[in-house]
Specification:
Length: about 350
């Protein structure tokens, strides 16, 4: 079988690859019959050679080719005609794939194949018309599977489906909180689900469990701190700082996380100044998950851009002071106190 995995998320691909390997039988023999080729270190002749080799002491053989089609696609697009070397290679690959042994699986993992170009749509050359990937997929000679990371708005659904597949009970509020804390990192989400399931020990995972157990939940406390700073509420800010310290947060870690939050504020404020108003759209634009973007949209209204830029400069000075001998705990306290008072005229 020939597969084309498009826009493959690392976690989704690893799970699918495990399924293909499991179908090969004895794991020890399977390892001897798996070939993994990097697209920039192989060519059509090499791919066809490995894909055409019969299995060794096993029923099946698996050949994985990573990011080759996207490179071939770009070479074809850059060529001046359909008689180029790239077109000849593409024609050979498409023609000879039909003759591969039925015992072998050939898997192309790619994210850059342009569906408007000839490799996808087909082309004509000296030896006649060559079908593109679209026709091979339509005729079921190639199985295409979309494996992109879910949109942030679809993460909750993905978590619910994964939990159901794993027979893990989880509350709706916990699902949303987990999606907000972790974002579109599917491997981490899956790991956190397993960890939470063990902690819940048979009962349904609650939002309180997520807040307690998920490693990224400290980001929520950081947002509490920056929320207090945006309100210029010194008492609340110091209380939030105390909560973070109670969790043994390293001062350098606190400074890094606070700076990160303010960089998000800058990106979100810039997007909002250009008319952005939907948190999901802004999240895609600034490449952050919806939770911090939603928080930033609320907080950045309390700042002018000049203030945010001044704050980022202050973080740099604090970082330098902490690295050149200043007491780190004291420097963080001074920084928080200053930020509750800061006004740029």
């Amino acid at each position: 079988m020939i597969y084309l995995f498009l826009d493959a998320d690392d976690y989704l691909f690893s799970r699918r690859l495990s399924e293909l390997k499991a179908a090969m039988g004895d794991p020890e023999m399977a390892d001897l019959n798996v070939t993994d080729l990097a697209g920039n270190q192989t060519d059509v002749a090499d791919i066809l050679y490995h894909a055409g080799t019969m299995p060794f002491l096993a029923e099946r053989r698996l050949v994985i080719v990573r990011d080759f089609l996207s490179q071939l696609d770009k070479r074809m697009a850059a060529s001046k005609g359909s008689d180029s070397a790239a077109h000849t290679e593409a024609a050979r690959l498409i023609a000879d794939m039909a003759d591969l042994p039925s015992t072998n699986d050939l898997v192309f993992v790619d994210s850059g194949v342009d569906k408007r170009r000839q490799l996808w749509k087909g082309f004509s050359g000296e030896k006649g018309a060559t079908p593109g990937l679209a026709e091979l997929i339509s005729s079921k000679r190639v199985v295409a599977e979309e494996m992109g990371t879910p949109d942030p708005r679809q993460l909750s659904g993905w978590i619910m489906r994964t939990a159901k597949d794993e027979a893990i009970a989880i509350d709706g509020q916990a699902v949303q909180m987990l999606a907000n804390f972790v974002g579109p990192n599917l491997r981490q989400l899956a790991n956190e689900l397993q960890k939470l399931s063990l902690y819940a020990n048979g009962r349904s995972i609650s939002a309180a469990d997520v807040k307690l157990m998920v490693s990224d939940s400290s980001e929520g406390l950081i947002w509490d701190l920056t929320d207090a700073l945006s309100q210029r509420d010194g008492r609340k800010a110091m209380r939030s700082l105390h909560d973070l310290r109670r969790g043994d947060a390293n001062p350098f870690y606190l400074l890094t996380m606070m700076a990160r939050q303010y960089r998000i504020l800058v990106k979100v404020k810039d997007a909002m100044s250009r008319g952005g108003s939907n948190e999901n759209e802004i999240a895609r634009e600034v490449k952050e998950s919806p939770y911090p973007v939603k928080k930033a949209m609320q907080q950045c209204r309390g700042y002018r851009m000049e203030e945010l830029e001044t704050i980022l400069d202050r973080f740099l000075r604090a970082d330098l002071a902490m690295k050149t001998g200043a007491d780190a705990e004291t420097e963080i306290e001074i920084l928080v106190a200053e930020l509750t008072q800061l006004r740029v005229r």
